Amino acid sequence: MEIKDKRLPSLDGWRALSIFLVLAAHTKETYDFPKSLDIYFKWLFDGDLGVRTFFLISGMLITWLLLNEEHSTGSISLKNFYIRRVLRIWPVYFTYLFVLLVLQIFTAYSQTGVMWLGNVLFMTNFFGAKWTNGHLWSLAVEEQFYFLWPVLMVVVKNKKVLIKLLLLTFVLAPISRVITYLQPQAVPWKIIFTGYSFFNYWDSLAVGCLSSILVSINQKKVIYWVNKAKFYAPLLVLVPYILVKLFLLGPFTVSVGPLLQAIGICILVVYSVFEKEAFLHKILNTRLLVKIGVLSYSLYIWQMIFCSKPEYFGFSGNILFSWKSWLLPVLLVAFCSYYFLEKPFIGLRRYFHKKS
What we know:
By secondary structure, the chain is mainly α. It has 18 helices and no strands. Helix 1 (11-27) packs across helix 16, helix 1 runs parallel beside helix 17 (296-306) and helix 4 runs antiparallel to helix 18. It is globular, with a radius of gyration of 20 Å.
């Protein structure tokens, strides 16, 4: 593996683009969003595509870091890995839950006990949610991924076997999405086939994991094929995207559409990481996009309060919830969250890296 940096270039830029898609898609849900703009936002912004990109990046980066650790120290420390993940994810996550609890006590906001249990156990994707805590489904998917994949890497070790396991998700995830789409009432364990089930999204994570493993095996060959495929990658993303918007070829778009999009995005991500003279690399590593990418987790967590309908809290419409200005308080809260809450915990992670 030629790159030893723990922070892969371009990924923050991709995070910035992903959070932009999510925030733009959620702008449509604010209380005073004009219906005349609805069609434009529907076509231009896809929050689900943004989240899938987050998943792909997560799979790629986590696998890359674990492979680097194994390469430099001879083994992977699961204990250190989970401590690092807790320090990164939990402080702001549980602070957000505390704020929701305060809102439930002092405002009209409420969610059921089952939903609270799902939030606390990182099972929101299976237990259900309301709008204001609905985005926590993706954090649940991430935590479920962290629970499974590093353990598999430690137990299996053989890269060829790991590749086969990842490719298996390319079959199982489309099947899961079709079952979810058809919603058959008699399916056992129906809770598994909810819309935000881990099993509907694990192929996006797997594509990212697979890319890091393939690069670790033969980086030059991967970059060669990525350069060949980079011109076709946008088609893999755009064709399913357009078909979904037009409600065409449902069986295709539901089953393999998300997988094709993940592969297309992955090709572009790998290209932007390793081809440092490429225009895409230079754009994604501009200071503004990197800074937004660094704040992306904070932005993602806190945004849902401000794009909720004010009546959820018993409020009347005001500037904090308006489609024209709701992003300003989101940016302010995310900035404070990152620099005063998250960053001190991020700094602690350096004590939980194995030394070679």
